[in-house]
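anyone seen this seq b4? input:
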Amino acid sequence: MDTIKFKQEFTIMCTVTFKAITEKSKGDSTKYNELVDEINRNNFHDASGTKKLRLWIMTFSRATSLLDESCSALVNAILKLDWTGHDNNLVVIYVMFLANLISSHSDYMPKVLGMLVNHFVFRVDKNGTIPLNLENIHGRVHYALKNIFPMVPSGAEELFGILSRGFPHKSESLPAQVTYLKNLLQLLEYIPCLQSQILELIFDRIIELDTEVQGKIEEIEDIEDASTKYELSLHSDQGSLSSCASSVYSKSRFNSPTDSYDGDFDYGSEEDALDIEDSTPSIVALDIGEMIEKLDCMIKLVFDYLKWFFDKGTKNERDDLFDILLTIFEENILYTFKSRYIQFIIFWYVSMDKSYPRQFLSILLNKILSDKEPDIIREAASQYIGSFVGRANYLSSTEIRLCIQALLLWTERYIESYEPTLQLPDPLKHMTFYSIVQSLMYIFCFRWKDLREVTGGIPRWCYEVVGYHKIVNSSFRPLQVCSRNTSDMFQAIVEALQFMNFEKQYSKRFGIIEQGILNISEYFPFDPFRLKTSQPYIEPIYRDWAGMPDKNQVAMEELDFKVIK
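predicted toks r here
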């Protein structure tokens, strides 16, 4: 009996719908407007309403061929329905309607994709609480995208544009950033063709936050210590999206939502219906502590995605992802002035395969040693290579020595070319040289144990480091020009290890440096990573400063080593 009644109601609704659309095409919009008003009222929240809504969606699926541009008001009303809050049967029927609609009228694709992506935006209800079914809502949206996207071959660029415009502005709350980014990364799991574009978008947004943090660099360590560690993971089997969002929302410093959710979405005027607006709020003062926590959680989610992809991907897929990350590094990160955190994503992924460190080092060396590169890029690359070799725990002694050998060879040739005409050190003219030498000193401070070997029972320093003596004691006087902290530490370690004999150096640093006109930057990109939520990814592969060589140990072990003179 119920089945018969259901079929009868379905037949009636089909008749009403077809008649309304047909009469509209002939100039009489009365019944069509009544139909639009019926759907716009959205009175489908109880059991009987769900049944009625199911019938309407089935009816509209039957009529999709008629829903051309002239019926956009009706289509907009259908797309504004709260379909994610109903049972699975209705969700399946609704997604089938979306698929039929796009197949019949591809012009609706932007509105359909915009409606779906808009569900990724963080919202709370009128009471300021997160919906308990948030995970189900997002899961159903992913189900819809996964089924609809293959039907629209030209939809990749359209979808990316919508995703890009919907990305929360850096001033938006921590829960807003986490919710959207988490959905964006989960989308990549079934739409991998957007991997390169979306990762570049994500890195760009993280870089925006990273550069904001640098404005108060002297306060950062204290703020990092006071930051919150969040229980956050990308995949629901490790912690549901609802619980993750709730954790972030309840603990975040500013948990006032930018939008609220009451079971219905307001998409604005009909002309703008279902299009995500460009997120460009007015400039506001940003709290450094909140930004650090945003960076921490966002980087953690990116780590989770990269780990998931690496574990499930083929060797070719992992290598392709590495190429994407290297491109992002070369074109974005390397050009970012004194970023503090974003580069650690690259640092981690390089550790995942034995072949990756040499590829990364090769890129840096090529930029450093190429006369065709701008000086600012050569100097940035030298900062990166010094910090990377000093801090990456996964580098082999062979890789460290080959890197040092290449840098020393270049600096020795540079000295041979320019020292004969050098009267006084000229840091402005030879900035690239001093940047490279500073990195060499930094590497030695962290890696001196990797620069020793025993040959034929005789302990000695490896031959690759012979060039240190010539460089340090050259007329360029790097100990007086380079960063005082790095120079002093290098000299102290060298003297403790009796690594070389220093020729007499001027104790006073040059006036041009003392006056602050020039400063050889002491920026090392992989200085300690202190973000609490994402730190577990970095801690096992990171080399902390071990301190000065123990004097007793040096007396027992080091004095037998041959000294380079």
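The two ends are 102 Å apart (CA to CA). Confidence is low (pLDDT under 50) at residues 237-241, 253-285, 511-518. kinda curious what u guys think
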